[in-house]
Amino acid sequence: MDEIKAIVDDLGIAALETNIKIAAVAVVSDSGSLIYQTENWDLVNQEDIILDVIKGVRTFNLSNVEYSVVESTTEGIIGTNENGMGHVLFAPFQGGVLVAYAMPQADPSKAMNFLKDYTTKLKSIL
User: Fold this and answer.
1) Quick count: other Cβ atoms within 10 Å of Cβ 7?
2) I need a labelling partner for 87 at 20 to 30 A (CA). Which of 4, 59, 65, 66 fits?
3) Is 90 exceeded by the pLDDT of residue 4?
4) CA distance 69 to 116
């Protein structure tokens, strides 16, 4: 857990320094366990929703906000709220998925690309 927290803390600092506009992060295992979440995002009991998006669901409600998948590639999945409430990014890796909330003014494709380095780090410890 300490290793995951260190990776997420590093992600938060780097996102701030590079103006990526990621505001919250969580890590969910392939089996649906919430391994880690930042204090400002409560995804308890929403793990099945996250895994359903990875399996192909195109619209989802996370933390009482509705999102639609606008991009799905091998790199990850981008869900955007049509009312300007931001984006949820899903970056799968062997062992789980890194989930991030990006603020409305973020470039979600740029943020997804940013997350790739961190999925590699997480994969090595899960």
Assistant:
1) 21
2) 4
3) yes
4) 19
pLDDT of residue 98: 98
**Alpha carbon distance 83, 88 (integer Å):** 13
CB 114 within 8 A of CB 22: yes
26 contacts 42 by C-beta, under 8 angstroms: no
Length of the chain as a residue count: 126
Alpha-carbon Rg of the chain, whole angstroms? 13
- 6 token code pair: 């260190």
pLDDT band at 124 (very low <50, low <70, confident <90, very high): confident
| The two three-digit tokens of residue 85, written as one number | 């409430």
How far apart are alpha carbons 57 and 68 in whole angstroms? 9
Residue 27 bridge partners (DSSP): 36, 98
Q: Which of 35, 44, 26 is nearest to 118 (CA)?
A: 26
CA-based angle 69:70:74, to the nearest 5?
Answer: 85
- pTM for the whole thing? 0.96
